[in-house]
Predict the structure.
Amino acid sequence: MTTYTVVTWPEVQLLMDLEGFKEHSYLINDEQGLNDFGSSAYFIETEWLSKNQ
């Protein structure tokens, strides 16, 4: 099972140019997600994130 970590702006900006970001992340853009995390927040696969920090 894949797990995800929420990364918010501006921290996510540091990850956006890394190889594989688009394949391992999902923009949070539903109403509840925007209320909880703000704009420009992403779900990022936890395993990929741990390899790229």
